Every structure is written in C-alpha cells, then in structure tokens.
Amino acid sequence: MASNSSGGGSSDRQGIAQQRLRIIAGHLRGPVDGDSTILAAECKAQGSNTDVSSEGKTVPRRRQEIMKWNGWGYSDSRFLFNKKGQAEFTGKRYRLSGMIIPGLKDWFEGTFGANLQHKTPPTPLLTNTAVPPATLNEAFVEEVKSTGIPFSHDAEDRVFRAHGHCLHEIFALREGKIGRVPDMVVWPSCHNDVVKIVQLACKHNVCLMPYGGGTSVSSALECPPEETRSIVSLDTSQMNRILWIDEKNLTAHVEAGIVGQDLERLLNESGYCTGHEPDSMEFSSLGGWVATRASGMKKNIYGNIEDLVVHIKMVTPQGVIEKSCQGPRMSTGPDIHHFIMGSEGTLGVVTEVTMKIRPMPEYQKYGSVVFPNFEQGVACLREVAKQRCAPASIRLMDNEQFKFGHALKPQVSSIFTSFLDGLKKFYITKFKGFDPNHLCVATLLFEGNREKVLQHEKQVYDIAAKFGGLAAGEDNGQRGYMLTFVIAYLRDLGMDYYVIGESFETSVPWDRVLDICRNVKARIIRECKDKGVQFPPLSTCRVTQTYDAGACVYFYFAFNYRGLSDPVHVYEQVEHAAREEILANGGSLSHHHGVGKLRKEWMRDTISNVGMGMLKSVKDYVDPNNIFGNRNLL
Amino acid sequence: KQFTSHKDPMLKKRDDFEDILEERRTSSDLRYALRCYTPVLYKGVTPCKTSVLKSMVLQSDQLHYVINQVSKESGRAADDVREEASAILEEMAHSLQLSTVRFFAFMLSKVFKTLFRSICVNEEGIQRLQQAIQEHPVVLLPSHRSYMDFLLMSYILYTYDVALPVIAAGMDFMGMKFVGEMLRMSGAFFIRRSFGGDKLYWSVFSEYVKTMLKNGYAPVEFFLEGTRSRTSKSLTPKLGLLNIVMDPFLKGEVFDVNVVPVSISYERILEESLYARELLGVPKPKESTSGLFKARKVLSEDYGSIHVYFGQPVSVRSLAEGRVNRCQFNLVPRHIPRRPSEEIQSFVNDSAYRLVRAQEENMVLKPWVLLASLLLQNHHQNRAAGQKPGMALDELTTQAVWLRDVSRQYGAFLHWPDHTSPSEVVSSGLSLHRALVRVCEGRVQLAVEQGVYLFEFLAVVVLSCASYRNQMLHVFVRPALLASAIHIASSNQKQEVFNSFSFLRNMFSSEFILCPGATVQDFEEACYLLVKTGVLQVTQQEVLVTERGHRTLAFLTSMLDPFLQGYQVVCRFLCEEDTETLTEKQFIPAVRKFIVNHLLAGRLRYAEVLSSDLQKNALAALQRLGAVRKIKGYVGFHHPCVPGWLD
C-alpha cells in the first residue's frame, strides 16, 4: 500500500496546501478555448462559487432537482394517459414531448390485457423515516471534512445512489421500500480528490462504491446487505470536464464522471465527437462505460469502449494504475486496460480517460427496410456483416416490436400524411403480400460525407432487396431509434397499470441468432404461463449489433401482473429462466450490461475455474481489504 | 412431471375409447376415402414437396461437411460422393401422396371391417396429439406387434384429420416391389437395417429425419423397439432414431420436441403362429408381394378388436431439464457430426426406457391374456403332476376373476366387460382363440394332442399362449422379481432379499423392460405394491409373507419360472457342451437341440424355453454378467462364474 504511506499529520498540511493551489488554479482557468490545439484544465476550485450546473452540465450534485427518485429520467418527462384516455408524453426535452400518441392505449390494453381503470400508482414521496439511519465512520467523516471535498448523509442523496434501474429496484422504490443504502455520499471533483478519498477509506476501512450515472441494470449499485462497514458512495458526477483535446492525434482527455450527452455536446462545440452512443447516454458516464465494457449504437464506425480508449487512469487501494504513454497499440504483456474495463467498480475508481475523437460527421441519414419475416431480416444482417458494410447502426426488430414501434407513432398533423401512411401500408401488405403478423423492420443510420453515405445506402438496400427487403423510409428508421430513448419512460407508465417489464441482452454467433431468439421468447412465454401470469406476456427481441462472427440480441419482456401475489419474484424467476435459456443456446452472459450481482451465479461456468482464479487474484492484490466492496462480478 | 408416478398404479386415469369402425360399417367407404382432408400442421406451415425436402437435405451444412470429409478420406471427387448421397436419399425418401392415402383408406376400411370387430381409439389422446402438432414438432412412437401397425396408425390419423406421419420402415419392405412403392407413397421412408460405419449414409438419414422434424412438415413416426416383437414383450429400445429426433432440441434448433407414445393392443395378433414358428427356428418368409397375396386367407378369420391408445405427449425439454447441459454444443459448430457425449447417451437411453414403459402402461389387456397365463401355468403343473390335462371351465372362471382383481390392483389396463357375466367373458375369450385352446368335456386345455410326434405343434401352441401371457408381464414383472427373490433368498433379511432381487433384475434386464440404474426404485415399487395388496409385510429389517399372500406369491413366481428355468438350461448347455468355444451362429441350433432333449427326457417342463428370443437374451445376460465372453464371433465361457443357485 505504497501510496497510502503518506498518512497521519502530514496529509492535513498537504491537503490545505493543495486546496489553496486549487483555488488559485480555479481563478486562472479560462473557458475551453477552441483555437488552441491542446486545451488543458486543472482540478477546479473547491469551495469557490462556481456552480457546476451553471456551466451547462447536466448532472447536479442533488440529482433529485431534475430527476425522478423512483423512475427513469427527468422529472418533467413522463408518459401518462390523459383524461380522454389518450397517451401523451410530457415535457419539452424530446421529439415526442408534448405529443399525443393515439395508438398506444389500444396497443397497451390489447397486448397486456391491461385496463386504464386498474391503476397501481407509486408512493408519491420519499419518506425519510423509511430510510435506515446512516452508519458513519466518524474518523473518516472528520478527515473527509478537512479535505474540503463535499459530502452528504442526507437521506434523499443516499437513497438516490442505492440503486440502478433493474425492475426489482424501481418496483421497491415505487412501493416506498428501501433496503440497505450508502451511509454517505462524497463528490470528488478531480483525480486528486479521488486519491484522497481512497486513501482515507483504506485508512479507516470504509467500503467505497463508485457511482457514475446510476443507469446500471445488473444490481451493481445495490449495497451488499451483509456489509457491516460504513458504505460510502463515491459519486463521480462532478468530475465532468474535458481536460484537453489533442487535434493532432484526435484524442480527448476527459474526466470519467462526465455523462454521455455532455461529452458529445461539448466535443461537438469543438467540431468533434466520440461517436460512442449507448442507449443510456443521456445519463450514463464515461467511467461507467469503462467499468462495464459498454457498447455504443454506432460501434460499427467508432468501435465499442475498448476500441475507443487510449489511456485510462484508475485509483485503487494499491495506488494509481495507468500506462506511461499513449501508443495506439502495445505488446507489453496482457493489456492492463482489460483488467480495468469490466471491473465493475471492484478494483478502484476510473478518474480520467483519454479517448479517440473524430470530426463530426458531415451528413447523417436514417433509413429502414421492411422484411417479409424475421428470418429474412437476420439473413440480410448476416450478409451485411459478411460484406463488412454495416452502416453506423443497423438494428432488426421482430414483428412484435415493429407493432410496438407502430403504436408509438405520434398523432399525424395532416390528412395527407395519414393518407400516405395508408398507401404505404397497402403497398406492403396487399401489393407485396407481406403478412402484417410476420413482417419485421430493420432501422438504419448512415454517417459520413454525403456522397459516401448515399453510395453506402445504395449498397445496403441492394443487399436487403436480395432478402426480400423493401425500403420503408427515413421516418420509420428515426422512430425506431427514438424508441430506445423512451422505452425506459414507457416502463414507468406500464408500472402505473400493473405492467412490469425489463430488457436484457446477449451476444451470440450468427448461426445461433434465429434459434436463440425463438427459444428465449418461447421460454419467457412458457415460464410466465407456468408461474401463473394471467395474460400472455410481451416477449420480443431485436438484433442490435452485428459483428464479423455474431450479433448482439436484445430481449424485451413485460407482463400484466394482476392476480399475482409476488410479481417481482415471478418476474425474477422468468428472467432467470430466460438467462438459462440464453446460455443453453450458446449466448453469452452479457454483451454490454455487465454482470453486477444479478448474473454472478453464472460467472464460473462462463469463464472457467482458472478464469475465476485469475480475476480473484487480481482483486486480492489490488484490493486485499475489499475497500471497493460492492461485490460485483466475482 | 409428464409421467404419472409409478408409485400408485391403481390411481392411473385413462381415457375412454371410441370405435372408429362403427361409422365405417354404416356409411360409404368411398365417400370416406374421398372426403376433404385438411390437417393442421406445426405453426401452420404448409406441407413441403418431396423434391424441395430432398434439396434441403442435400444442401444442408451437415451433409456438405460430411461429403467433403468422405471425399477427402477416400480420395473420391466431392461430386461423386454427392451423387452417392443423392442416390441414398432417392432410395430412402418418402413421397407421400394424398391419392395413395385415399386408396389405402378405402382398401383398409374394407379389410379392417372383415378382420376386426372394432378399432378402438382414445379420442382425447387424438385431441392432445392435434394440439401438440400445432405447438411443437411431434414424434410418434407406436408399439410394434404387427405389420399392420403403421398402416393402422396412418389410417387412424387420416380418420381424425390429423397430419399424416412419415414413417421409418425397414428396407425389407422394399423387396415387395409394388407394395414398397405404395407404402412410400403413403408416407414410409426406408432405411437399411444396418449401416454401421457408413458415415455418408448416417448423415443423409439423420439430416433427412431432422429436416422433416425441425420444420414441422410432418410428424415423424418410428418404432422404438426397432422391430416387431415376436413375443409380445416390449423389446429393449433402439436408440439411433431417438438420438436423431432429440438432437434438434438439444442443439436449440427447436424450442421443444413432443414425443407421443402410442400403445397398439391386438386382441388376436395376425402373425400369431408365424411368430411362434419363427422363434422355433422355422425361418421367417421373405417379404414378397406374392407372399402377401397368399396370406389373404387370414381375411376369413376373426381377429377380435384393436385398441389404440395415444399417450400423453412427452416434452423432450422437460425430460432433459436438469439432466443435460445444453451448453456442451457451444464450442463446436452444430452441423459437424459428433458422437453423443456420455451424458447424452445415458439421457437418451433412460428416456427410451421411460417411453417404452409409457407404451406398456397403456396397453389394453383382454381377459384372454389372463386365461392364457392361467392355462399355461396349469398346463405345466399338470405335466409335472401327471394329472388329467386341462382345467375345469368353472375353475378357470373363478381363477380368472381372482386374477382380474389382482391385476387391476397392480395397475393393469384391463378391458374386462363388467356388465357381462364372468363365464360369458371367459367363453368368448376362449372362442376367439380356438386355434390355441379347446373346451372338451367341461375342461379347457391347450389345443394339442399328447404325443411326441406333435412336439413341434405343441411348441407353437405354447409359444403362442406365452406371447399372450407376456402381454401382462409388464404389470407383474417387478413384483414377480421380488417374489422370486424372496423364494431364492436364504433368509427374510431385507438386505438379502434386495441382493437377490438386484441379481435377478440384472440378469433379466434384456428380457424385460427394466430401466437401467433403477434397481432401488424398482425394489421399492415392488415392495409398495406387494405390501399394499397385503401379500407382504416389510419392516426396516425384514420381508415377511402374509398368510393370504401365498397365493399371489405363488402365481408371481410361477410366472417368472419359465424364464428362470430357461436361463438355467442355457447355462447347463454351456457347461456341459464339450467345446470351449462355439460360433454365434452355432449357438441357437445347438442350444435348441439340447433343450429338445431335455424336454423329451422330462427334465424340463417349459416348452417355451425353445424360444430363440429367450436363448439370445440369456446369452446376452451371461455375457453382461461376465460368465461368457465374446471373441470375434465366437462365444467363450468361464465355467466357475455360473451362479450356484441356478443348479
């Protein structure tokens, strides 16, 4: 524990000195300057008046100011059925905001057998009495206080950081049930703050749980109930600056707490982007992506997180781990980045990342293709992957999801558009003979310079035609992608009316794609029936990423839980069975959601005994006292 | 959970039957044959043309792989091998045609009405099958007692508007030129009896079956027992085809496969005396069209009724639940043929036994089956005691009523008309089988004259009767093994009895359907039944026979006795035979001669020991027990290993 040796009295003095330095640096720091090739910034001032949110950053320390405490996303944005029974989406943030969605009610009632009369509203307010009192490590608190790093043991702050967005987590919150929560939250604002916190945690033996965007769907943020030490949630959201942009090498050095939308927006201001767009990018953070091996929608052009990072800095109980240079590829033994990526907060906190950046694409175009059936669609995606000509994004929805997407069509403004829609429908179903109960849709997103995009588009549509695919317009494509951003909001709507659901993913070799889709969907339906679910569930899937040797498949399932005494338990049993089915069909444990605590039981079978031993020995060396005690992964 | 627990057979619930010939007797056969036939297929797929099916098979990844492999190994051109594969497929594939089916529907209506009083089918079973076909690929597994079986199956399914199956048939049918093609057009496909090492043949065959099954083009039907049972006992299941049809599920190519055991019970088997002769070593006539023509004289006889019971569809998925780790197929492309792992082999084997037992359970037993076993036992006892031959009719009736009640207690699916008086039931049973028994001066006896010169005739009658007796063996086999074990064991100690039971069970495991590795369960089941029926008292330590239990116990032991004696005589033959080794071919004739001598000398009571089936099973058992060794076509044996108590 070399880096921890500077404990005791000297650290106080050091702390004060550093704080002063920071204040000075804060005064000196100018705004991000687009002219200079290298933009640099130091850790900003503590205690200075600079308010983080006023800089156009999305996430304030008090998340509750803008976000729901018991549901997805912004407080101002939600689906509801208005007095006329029509669905609408509130707020102003999204394309769908303020719009009426006429088809949703019928789809909702028809698919789930739900009824707008049967409501299950959530507990409206968080009652502080429901929150267990904080177990504080006084010595640790005192020392943190002396560093000037902001912290809180306010009940709301703690509850906010005690969960991700698994169904059981949100369900419990809606019922006002709160289990073990962190005892304290700290907000470091730079790498050095993190170093200090980790040192103090080691010194006082408190348990640290890194918290980024809070979008986990693997129970990774759940506090281990058996943990007796004080649990401190280390919220990275205030470490959110782009420290420099290197236009010669096309890299940017960024603090790991930045959320996706801010990163893209700020880079866009300088004419760049990372192109990393996970569906959760509004809220998920760079550090979270690294810690879970995230994947972005446009990975076909930009790559997944492992392809994007050039350099990572992580603070561990043993000290800071990083590489000494930024060479684009190295042959220096096993890549230490691969110990960090996917470590899910069990080894340390990722503080700074150097990422590849690209000039913003000059032209973007959505598109969609209708296939007579899912089999043809998959065959087409396989061919596209074989020819290595996948657009930035290509996704194939099955028939159920196509219908779902259709139900989300906002009210059309003119008779002409609705006439056109009718004509399209007629052409596809009557003239081309597609069965509306079998057809499926691929959504496409092309990026690049205009000429190449158009050329690329033609190439892909030509392949699609060979598999019976018909181009179905940009609009369908764009709506498909919108669905990914609003799906989590929709789950909250379902939960208002006895409908619970979740999505999960896997990756699988090409020859297994159809089999896994069919079998997992059938297994979900079978399990729901066996477990006494009264109505057939929604069980649907889509292929969301293509690779040379396989694809990523996403499953959605949801059901009406009226008549069930313990819906969450039923739900968990079904999800468990579905995962077993995935594994039995050659699918992976996870493509990008990670393992967390939810999928731990399958780790040994997944990576073998020796693999487990390897990971364990890394953990034992890096963190012998289990300071990073979230107990994910292993 | 698909199988009813064997624990309490008395609680078994079975469906009612409906006679499908009834309607045939009152309405036009022609109209029936030409009626609208629109079966529903799996998930509503449309049936597939034979030519399309063949090209799917030939273009499959698996076959592609094997063709290249064979071509590499043999140095032949790939096209050449492909030609061969195509030829194999031509020889094999069915070409189901509705017109042929209609022709058969018409002809068979005529034939069935002449031969049989009724063909009874459980309609609920048909409904379950109908449902299963729509949801999953379905495999039909009928029992196999007669050539009639598969025509009968298709006839029934046609009658109920259920999808017609494609049926795995032995190549021997192909010998009958015209008939072979007719069968092909009614859905049969033909496989060679043995193709051991022929990779290409196996590959074409398995791909052909899987393609039909996976796509749900038609239910696949085959006989788990591999061949017709000449003895009416279920045969040890063959695993090849079962392996093939389970494969698509295990590899995730379909969500599930449903297997439907079907029990076809004949009140009187068409091939009755044919089988007996065959078992006695009179070679079976080669299948030929002219032979079939000659066999038409059977048309003038009465063969009673047929009961066809469609069992509960068994989901392969639930059979495999917790037994097979399907991840084992993750690391090698699924189209590359591999020998099934040990885990899968044992799973398929266990499943096969469970399915055969499911067939057995729903076999309908006619009162004649009880009469045949009583008469046989009596025949042998009389021979021993030198009494007047036969049994008084009223005594037979009394005993039959007793046995009726006992067998019901043991869970037999007995079709005893309760509204008729027992004596009428008995006499109607006897009259249907007048070829085997006769009533003479109020005494019932086997239809044989005394005397050496009719020895062969006697054996035919005894073996025929034994085959009817065998129909109820599955009901009694476990209790009978326990009864014999008690008889043999040196004390009443439970452990002792169990050891004897275990030995007997092991020895007879090719003779009867005894699930491998289920010794303890079988022992418990037997104890349970015998305790429940008041025959035994079983304590922690001891097994005691009750006062009133002796009669049942005696019945049970004498049921097993011919088999015990038979195995014993085979042992004696091996011990007394001078040569140390003999060829497999020589074995049966030699042991037969030996047995005939014993029978004639009165050292052996049971003529049924002449059954070559029993002799083969005995040899297999001795081989399994290590008393006999097989040396490349020769049979060698070690004298000292023959267990002492057999002498």
Automatic annotation (TrEMBL), chain A:
<comment type="function">
    <text>Catalyzes the exchange of an acyl for a long-chain alkyl group and the formation of the ether bond in the biosynthesis of ether phospholipids.</text>
</comment>
<keyword id="KW-0809">Transit peptide</keyword>
<dbReference type="InterPro" id="IPR016171">
    <property type="entry name" value="Vanillyl_alc_oxidase_C-sub2"/>
</dbReference>
<keyword id="KW-0444">Lipid biosynthesis</keyword>
<feature type="site" description="Important for enzyme activity">
    <location>
        <position position="395"/>
    </location>
</feature>
<dbReference type="Pfam" id="PF02913">
    <property type="entry name" value="FAD-oxidase_C"/>
</dbReference>
<feature type="binding site">
    <location>
        <begin position="210"/>
        <end position="216"/>
    </location>
    <ligand>
        <name>FAD</name>
    </ligand>
</feature>
<dbReference type="GO" id="GO:0071949">
    <property type="term" value="F:FAD binding"/>
</dbReference>
<keyword id="KW-0808">Transferase</keyword>
<dbReference type="InterPro" id="IPR016167">
    <property type="entry name" value="FAD-bd_PCMH_sub1"/>
</dbReference>
<keyword id="KW-0576">Peroxisome</keyword>
<comment type="subunit">
    <text>Homodimer.</text>
</comment>
<feature type="binding site">
    <location>
        <begin position="344"/>
        <end position="350"/>
    </location>
    <ligand>
        <name>FAD</name>
    </ligand>
</feature>
<dbReference type="InterPro" id="IPR016166">
    <property type="entry name" value="FAD-bd_PCMH"/>
</dbReference>
<feature type="binding site">
    <location>
        <begin position="292"/>
        <end position="295"/>
    </location>
    <ligand>
        <name>FAD</name>
    </ligand>
</feature>
<dbReference type="Pfam" id="PF01565">
    <property type="entry name" value="FAD_binding_4"/>
</dbReference>
<comment type="pathway">
    <text>Glycerolipid metabolism; ether lipid biosynthesis.</text>
</comment>
<dbReference type="InterPro" id="IPR004113">
    <property type="entry name" value="FAD-bd_oxidored_4_C"/>
</dbReference>
<feature type="binding site">
    <location>
        <position position="491"/>
    </location>
    <ligand>
        <name>substrate</name>
    </ligand>
</feature>
<dbReference type="InterPro" id="IPR036318">
    <property type="entry name" value="FAD-bd_PCMH-like_sf"/>
</dbReference>
<protein>
    <recommendedName>
        <fullName>Alkylglycerone-phosphate synthase</fullName>
        <ecNumber>2.5.1.26</ecNumber>
    </recommendedName>
</protein>
<dbReference type="InterPro" id="IPR006094">
    <property type="entry name" value="Oxid_FAD_bind_N"/>
</dbReference>
TrEMBL record, chain B:
<keyword id="KW-0012">Acyltransferase</keyword>
<dbReference type="GO" id="GO:0016287">
    <property type="term" value="F:glycerone-phosphate O-acyltransferase activity"/>
</dbReference>
<dbReference type="GO" id="GO:0031966">
    <property type="term" value="C:mitochondrial membrane"/>
</dbReference>
<dbReference type="GO" id="GO:0005778">
    <property type="term" value="C:peroxisomal membrane"/>
</dbReference>
<dbReference type="GO" id="GO:0008611">
    <property type="term" value="P:ether lipid biosynthetic process"/>
</dbReference>
<dbReference type="GO" id="GO:0006631">
    <property type="term" value="P:fatty acid metabolic process"/>
</dbReference>
<comment type="similarity">
    <text>Belongs to the GPAT/DAPAT family.</text>
</comment>
<dbReference type="GO" id="GO:0019432">
    <property type="term" value="P:triglyceride biosynthetic process"/>
</dbReference>
<dbReference type="Pfam" id="PF01553">
    <property type="entry name" value="Acyltransferase"/>
</dbReference>
<dbReference type="GO" id="GO:0008654">
    <property type="term" value="P:phospholipid biosynthetic process"/>
</dbReference>
<dbReference type="InterPro" id="IPR002123">
    <property type="entry name" value="Plipid/glycerol_acylTrfase"/>
</dbReference>
<keyword id="KW-0808">Transferase</keyword>
<keyword id="KW-0472">Membrane</keyword>
<feature type="domain" description="Phospholipid/glycerol acyltransferase">
    <location>
        <begin position="138"/>
        <end position="267"/>
    </location>
</feature>
<comment type="pathway">
    <text>Phospholipid metabolism.</text>
</comment>
<dbReference type="GO" id="GO:0004366">
    <property type="term" value="F:glycerol-3-phosphate O-acyltransferase activity"/>
</dbReference>
<protein>
    <submittedName>
        <fullName>Glyceronephosphate O-acyltransferase</fullName>
    </submittedName>
</protein>
<dbReference type="InterPro" id="IPR022284">
    <property type="entry name" value="GPAT/DHAPAT"/>
</dbReference>
<dbReference type="Pfam" id="PF19277">
    <property type="entry name" value="GPAT_C"/>
</dbReference>
<dbReference type="InterPro" id="IPR041728">
    <property type="entry name" value="GPAT/DHAPAT_LPLAT"/>
</dbReference>
<dbReference type="InterPro" id="IPR045520">
    <property type="entry name" value="GPAT/DHAPAT_C"/>
</dbReference>
